[in-house]
Amino acid sequence: MSGFFLKMNQNKRIKHLLVCCGGYPTKENPVFPFVEQIVNEFARNGIRVSVVAPQSLTKHFFRKEPLHPRYRLINRKNFSPVEIFQPYTVSFGRHFVLLNRVLKKISLHSVLRKIEKPDVCYGHFWYYASALYDFAKKNKIPLFVASGEASIKTEAHFSAYEKKNFLDYYKGVFFASTKNKKESEDLGFLTNQKNIVIPNAIDPSSFYLMDKQKLREKYSISQNFFIVVFVGSFIQRKGPNRVASALKKINDSNIKAFFIGREHDGVKLDFDYEGTILKGVVEHDKLVDYLNMADVFVLPTLAEGCCNAMIEALACGLPIISSDLSFNDDVLDDSCSIRINPESIDELAEAIKTLSNNPFLCKEMGKNALKKASSLTIEKRANTIVHFMESLLR
Question: Among the four residues 231, 280, 347, 391, which has the most C-beta atoms within 10 Å?
Fold first, then answer.
């Protein structure tokens, strides 16, 4: 280990962290970017990270999802190493929950025994924390949970006996929203463990304010357009179809749209709007350009843990139109957002019209969005998580 990392690690209790999660991005397939962001920040802080993220052969063959390398080692200057294991697994649909769980655990444990014993196990979402339980307990490794699910369904995977043992063992949990904490409490997952609520965050080097006029010139887009941007999976829960319907209802040829995302799990969602400039995927490092060319970020989502795309939009100075549901309470307020019933096309259309007809209000909310995002950085989030874990290891 270099002198740089020796110095950083002298006072750290956590030198090696094992992260288990549902996916990890490649450049060609940027899934789970929020996991990569927090892992990179751990590595920047001198913590070696081993990531285990099983990948589905079933989804590859039947839904054409690309396969990732089964092993990658990432070494960067002034970062601790990050190794990523992505073993193959198979699944048989939602009617075979227990079988799917057994197969995923077999895949997971096939690589866990190859990894040098970590100081801490970290399950990204309840499902993967529970999948790590046997390994953590057998090797006497502290186990922590990161809960940021849109909806928590792990109770379907536990017997009463397994649930009690897991709850008796894990050390603590950090929630992406108060909504996640409440849902976990209601399911009986939070008993005597320590916990904190800390919203998701952005990397300020990736998402930041840029010159809108110059970007529109670069992409040959008129300065006169009012542009709505949606970022998310093209699924009913996220609501791109509701955004398109609201824009049709407004029927203003000056209002244009970016729909940035893709189909999810092979489900096709039909929606269209005549003023659409872009519909589909953009390279992750170009997303900041499209956010900065827009005037407002619109996401009438029905369920979230804490939406990363929305925080990225705040960091680009965009006012937000999103749901009035509890998962947004920790991030959005009246200074930077208009919150609506996500199933009401009328409310959605009225909110878009309000901002398109009032440039001063739109600009002021954009300034407040930047202030809000300044407190939601990945560096602060990672430091809080590490301090929380280390405080419980003392």
Answer: 231
